[in-house]
UniProtKB/TrEMBL annotation:
Coiled coil: 71-129
SUPFAM superfamilies xrefs: ARM repeat, TPR-like
Alphabetized UniProt keyword annotations: Coiled coil, Repeat, TPR repeat
GO cellular component terms, semicolon-separated: centrosome; cytoplasm
GO biological process: axonemal dynein complex assembly; sperm axoneme assembly
Presence of the UniProt keyword NAD in the record: no
InterPro entries, A to Z: ARM-like, ARM-type_fold, TPR-like_helical_dom_sf, TPR_2, TPR_rpt, TTC12
UniProt source species: Brachypodius melanocephalos (black-headed bulbul)
Name recorded for this polypeptide: TTC12 protein
Length: 663
């Protein structure tokens, strides 16, 4: 029809006549078909008075106008009908959503279905109904609705996601993965969701395969399987002495020693062991007798055996009532045996991505404080706790949970540990400091730490050294504290400004340290703290920082050099003495000229800034005669440098050079 309309409106008479002829033909065909339909009821006069339409152009024009008017009227009626039905469909969709939120999935399905009767091509109704079908475990219907949704919108992400879930529930693992891959193709930004879905499919497939294998073992009369069944039956019997249960659990832990045994344990409801009142009482008691301690330790050992390398068992264990909440209580129990085995159990989770995801579903707001307290331990508990913390700190959800109790509980403990550095396990303390440094990736936590005067003072006290200052453990702590300070100096606040002088003084003293890593970090801290305080700049210039930085620049270490030239640019910008000392120790400014050719633009920019400050001194420009300084600055100012600040610094240096030395 669009082509006909275009032809009828054409300026080309041949095209227009052809369109008229085709229109006439269609009108005749339409008339003939109607006549055939009504032939049984109506007598039709088929006599053709005149077949030449061109003989009556006015009639042709009238017929065409009527045809177009009918088309327009039909289109308006259809649009009006669709608007009315879309309003009704949307209202029914909202009713369905309300029923879904309230958990009435059958009613939700009914409302979505009524909406689809009003509007058959509304994609949201199909996907919403599919979601409701999933809740009722009607997976085939959910898949069908997802397929219809994709006919409405082939890029519907939700349809692929829900279809994948339905296929997974039906154990169609290949089809589920294909749906998730399609989902990623539609939106590559959903990589995290894709990874989670694929991981879920992998775990579910492994669970099914393991249980099929276990079933075959049982049918074959596997002795271990029969032993696990018998022990679980005995442990589940009520009214026995606590030592009876302890012994049974110990025996059970020895039998559950491989994947098949772990599967037997799970499929025989082994994780429901807390349903036994005596076992649950010992596990949850706030103050435990020696017998209860022994039973609790036995239970933790059993769970370690059942969950080692088995992600499905890890999921099932944390899904049991009391377990997740009780882990924090066990960590703070004060009983070394219980703490040790609890840490060992948690470590099974923290060392893999899926396990961490399971842990993070729990309330971990107290964990940072509880785990950091183990730094005071002199045994393996300190290392285990720090390993867990190191695994968790990279998780955004853990960082968010830590905020709640950070300033009230964690900070006081941390500052106490730093102050008592000589009395705790220093290797563990260094790892605890590194953990806090990693948590500074969270802007909220970093701001709290950087604002804390007590934290800064504790860091400075540790840097002061003491009787153990030369020990390897202490040096690890110094290195970690300097890294933490560098992270905190990404913030700018009154506390940092107030303490900038003592911070820079400690770092200046560390520039002569025998450990090159400590020297590099101390230089980095200086480069970040000096902009906060002109007084700090004056103090370090008096302390000979210019000569030390020139020495580092000549040595050529890339990271240290980038920090050193930044320090020189800060000092020469606000201190004439720094400018004079730089010219005294590098009379022809060869160090700065070399840096102008560096590959790192930040280094080049700082070198140009430093040079422009030194050119304010009488005679400085003359020292550059015969060098390639003009070409180097022209190249950077003229466009080789991509950063505007580097171009600007180079242009300023070039201008000052030309003013000071016209030659």
């Amino acid at each position: 029809l669009a082509n006909l309309l275009q032809g009828l409106n054409s300026s080309d008479s041949a095209v227009r006549e052809k369109a008229i002829a085709e229109t006439e033909q269609r009108l005749r065909e339409q008339g003939a078909s109607r006549e055939e339909e009504e032939e049984s009821r109506t007598t039709v006069n088929r006599t053709l008075i005149n077949t030449s339409v061109r003989a009556f152009p006015s009639e042709t024009k009238a017929g065409l106008n009527g045809f177009l008017a009918a088309l327009e009227k039909d289109a308006k009626e259809r649009a009006q009908w669709r608007r009315r039905n879309e309003q009704l469909a949307n209202a029914l969709k909202e009713q369905g959503n309300k029923a879904f939120r309230e958990g009435d999935f059958a009613l939700a399905i009914q409302r979505y279905s009524e909406g689809l009767e009003k509007l058959r091509d509304k994609q949201e109704l199909y996907t919403n109904r599919a979601q409701a079908y999933l809740k009722l475990r009607e997976y085939e219907k959910a898949i069908s609705d997802c397929e219809w949704a994709l006919k409405c919108n082939k890029s519907c992400l939700k349809a692929y996601f829900l279809m994948g879930k339905a296929h997974l529930a039906l154990q169609h693992f290949t089809e589920a993965r294909q749906c998730y891959e399609k989902m990623l193709q539609v939106d590559p930004q959903k990589e995290n969701l894709f990874r989670d879905c694929v991981s879920e499919a992998r775990l579910e497939e492994k669970r099914v395969r393991d249980e099929e294998k276990a079933e075959r073992e049982i049918q074959a009369g596997n002795v271990a399987a029969l032993s696990i069944q018998e022990l679980l039956q005995r442990i589940s019997s009520p009214g026995q002495h606590i030592l009876y249960y302890t012994g049974g659990i110990r025996l059970l832990a020895e039998v559950v020693n491989n994947c098949t045994g772990q599967t037997f344990f799970r499929t025989n409801n082994g994780f429901s062991i807390l349903g036994n009142e005596t076992v649950r009482g010992a596990f949850c008691a706030s103050s435990k007798s020696p017998a209860e301690v022994e039973l609790c330790v036995s239970l933790l050992l059993l769970w370690q055996a059942a969950c080692a390398g088995n992600e499905e068992n890890q999921r099932v264990l944390l899904a049991q009532p009391h377990v997740g909440a009780q882990l924090a209580e066990l960590l703070s129990s004060g009983t070394p045996q219980i703490q040790r085995e609890t840490l060992a159990l948690i470590s099974l989770y923290s060392d893999n991505e899926n396990g961490r995801r399971l842990l993070l579903r729990q309330d971990l707001s107290r964990w940072l404080q509880l785990l950091m307290a183990f730094v005071k331990s002199t045994d393996a508990r300190a290392d285990s706790a720090m390993n867990i913390l190191s695994d968790l700190t990279g998780e955004k959800r853990f960082q968010t949970q830590c905020r709640a109790m950070f300033s009230t509980d964690v900070l006081p403990l941390f500052t106490q540990l730093l102050v008592c550095a000589g009395q705790v396990e220093q290797a563990a303390l260094a790892r605890a400091v590194a953990v806090l440094g990693s948590l500074c990736a969270d802007v909220g936590l970093r701001a709290q730490l950087a604002q804390s005067r007590e934290c800064w003072q504790a860091c400075l006290q540790l840097l002061d050294g003491g009787p153990a200052a030369s020990s390897p453990g202490y040096q690890q702590c110094v290195f970690a504290v300097l890294g933490l300070m560098m992270n905190l100096l990404l913030e700018s606040n009154g506390t940092i400004q107030d303490l900038a002088v003592p911070i820079s003084g400690r770092c200046l003293a560390l520039l002569s340290h025998q450990d090159g890593r400590i020297v590099t970090r101390a230089t980095g801290v200086l480069s970040r703290v000096l902009p906060a305080s002109p007084s700090a700049v004056e103090e370090v210039v008096k302390g000979g920082v210019v000569k030390k930085m020139l020495k580092f620049l000549k040595a050529g270490g890339q990271l240290t050099s980038s920090y050193a030239i930044k320090i020189l640019s800060i000092c020469t910008k606000s201190s004439r003495r720094a400018q004079e000392e730089l010219l005294r120790w590098d009379k022809r400014l060869r160090v700065l000229l070399k840096l102008l050719e560096a590959g790192d633009e930040l280094t080049v920019g700082n070198a140009a800034l430093c040079l422009s400050q030194c050119l304010l001194l009488p005679g400085a420009a003359s020292a550059l005669l015969g060098s390639s300084v003009v070409q180097l600055l022209l190249r950077q100012a003229g466009g080789d440098a991509r950063r505007p600040s580097v171009q600007q610094n180079s242009a300023i240096a070039l201008g000052r050079l030309c003013v000071a030395e016209p030659r």
